[in-house]
Amino acid sequence: MTYYDQVAEAAAFLKSRLGSLAPKVGIVLGSGLGAAAQAVANPVIVPYAEIPHFPQSTVEGHSGRIVAGALNGSPVVIMQGRVHYYEGYSPLEVTFPMRVLGLLGVRVVVLTNAAGGIHAEYHPGQLVLLADHINQMGWNPLNGPNEPRFAVRPAAGLRFFDMTEAYSKALRALAKKAALEEGFSLEEGVYLATPGPSFETPAEIRAFRALGATLVGMSTVPETIVARHMGIEVLGISCVTNLAAGLGSTPLSHEEVSETGRQVENRLAALLKRLAPRIPATVGAES
């Protein structure tokens, strides 16, 4: 069975479990950011372990299940947890869920993550929109044969494709407006992805700052690359869970990441609830 066939089988299984629900918007929740899934009405819950070929989350703070239903009246499919390269998964396995979302019918995806803050003015608990990214993982998930059948829009699925607007300007504008309505503002930043699992050294953080990064993490970039290859529009949101190495006074830990995520997850959930009904019309997700 080919990789495409495995993705198609997984998507067909999910469609059978979701019944008449046909979400065009997908949301991926990062470490400690699961509250949005609790806001879904009449949820259909599918553990990753039940989906054919689907990789399993092994990291604390990643529940490892699909939650689909209505978020503020809008149909969505939420991934409550993701998998990472550092867990021992291959690039194809890391991006398998994104491929499945595309074949399921998702046309817009909101990617959230926990990130270290490199910008001097960021503070733990702050939400930051991704305007761009820097791939320092040492690999690209599209290495190998190109599979144009993954395209979900015309002119997508190309071997070489444009990444000038990896993160949708229209969706960023929409998110900024929604945040103001919730009583806070959203800045934009540049996310740099490393393979992990070790946190960065102070020297690496200084180098990343020189490259123009304001956030650092261990996810999101592979998913974004694959989403854009398929023709899926992307909104990226980082939760600054800690100051990056050398910028704070305490050692970095995953416990700190998870705890800060839990403190801000309700704010993120409120933002996503406000955004969900507005997203489809903004970027033509109905197509």
UniProtKB/TrEMBL annotation:
Q: Which GO terms describe its cellular component?
A: cytoplasm
> Which keywords fit this entry according to its UniProt record?
Glycosyltransferase, Transferase
Pathway, per UniProt?
Answer: Purine metabolism; purine nucleoside salvage
UniProt cross-references to InterPro entries, sorted A to Z: Nucleoside_phosphorylase_d, Nucleoside_phosphorylase_sf, Pur_Nuc_Pase_Ino/Guo-sp, Purine_phosphorylase
Q: Which residues are noted in the entry as a purine D-ribonucleoside-binding?
A: 200, 242
Q: Name one GO biological process term.
A: nucleoside metabolic process
- Nucleotidyltransferase in keyword set: no
> What terms describe the molecular function in GO for this protein?
purine-nucleoside phosphorylase activity
Any idea what job this protein has?
The purine nucleoside phosphorylases catalyze the phosphorolytic breakdown of the N-glycosidic bond in the beta-(deoxy)ribonucleoside molecules, with the formation of the corresponding free purine bases and pentose-1-phosphate.
Name this polypeptide is given:
Purine nucleoside phosphorylase
Please state the gene responsible for encoding this protein. punA
